[in-house]
Every structure is written in structure tokens, then in C-alpha cells.
Amino acid sequence: xxxxxxxxxxxxxxxxxxxxxPRISDNKISRLTGIPLRTVNRKRKAxxxxxxxxxxxxxxxxxxxxxxxxxxNLVTLKFRLGITRKMLVDSIDTxxxxxxxxxxxxxxxxxxxxxxxxxxxxIIESMSHADIIEIINAEIxxxxxxVFGKDVIIDTSVIELSVMLRMxxxxxxxRNMKNGKIKxxxxxxxxxxxx
Length: 195
Prior knowledge:
Layout: H1 9-20, H2 26-33, H3 37-49, E1 71-79, H4 85-91, H5 96-105, E2 106-114, E3 117-126, H6 129-148, E4 153-161, E5 177-178, E6 181-182
Antiparallel strand pairs: 1-3, 1-4, 2-3, 5-6
Helix pairs in contact: 1-2, 1-3, 2-3
């Protein structure tokens, strides 16, 4: 795939409609944009095949929804020098225990870098902030220590998060979302696709 791919005008308008409502039909996109139906279908499928667009369902489990979790923390783990991205990715077990833990408590996770040190950045949810500290010390840190040794993590940071303002550029759950999509009437100029 071309690293410098730009969306053409039709793709831009198709993506904008999909951002507003990921469940929108190709027929409706065609009606709203004036792009022929077959072109909408072909271009949407091509964007999917190129991994340029993705769809997912976000279940509100935090205090803005089901209230299964009342605490959300941004957690960073800083690894000692010598730990590489490949080593970290390879160490993350996709077995049932690890996968179940990660799918329950880890809302998002990223690999980053700070001054030459590999960082793992996670947003972790649980019932209380104290629970999250226990999760870090009793479950996450021991897993990495078992693989890389006791001195693998040289620093941690934990920040309590309270309200999600924005996600994926365009979605503001407390402001522009209704019935699982961007509200009808939300100004199209406020939806970011590309510049």
C-alpha cells in the first residue's frame, strides 16, 4: 500500500458519511453524496481492503453507560534499556487468561518511546482506582518480570481519568453522539477526514 495515499473526492465524501454513521448503507451514501451506488460499493470495499477504514462497536461500560467500571486510569510502564518493540509484542500472551484480562480491563494500549526507553501506555478500567493499582502490581508487572526479569520496569505513572471528551478525532460521546452515531444535523465541517 502506498504510504502517501490520499483520498480522492469521492472517497472523502464516502468516508465522511461512514464516520457520521458506520452502519449507513451504500444506497444511502449514494443518495446523500450523488456518487453512483456501484462506485460507492467499489470504493468502500477498496478502502476496507487497504485497511484505511475500520468499524467497531464501543460498549459504554464506564460511568457514562453500564457503570460496570467506575475508575479509569492512564498507566505508563517504562522498560529498561534493551527491551525492543518486537520483544514486548512477542511477550504479550494471547492465551485465554491474558486475553480475558486484557479484554476486560484494558480499554486501549499503545507502545511508545521516551528517551530511548520502550513504554507501554494503557487505559485501564476497574471498579475503583485502588483496584487498578492492584491490577498493575499483582497482574501486569509480574507478567513482564517473569519474561524479562525483576528489573524490567524502571518507572510507572498512573493518572486518574474521569470524563472522555473525544475519541478517534470526531466522536464526542457527551456532545455529538446519539443512538450510536453522530447526531443528525451535526455540522459536516466539524467532521475531520483529511486536509
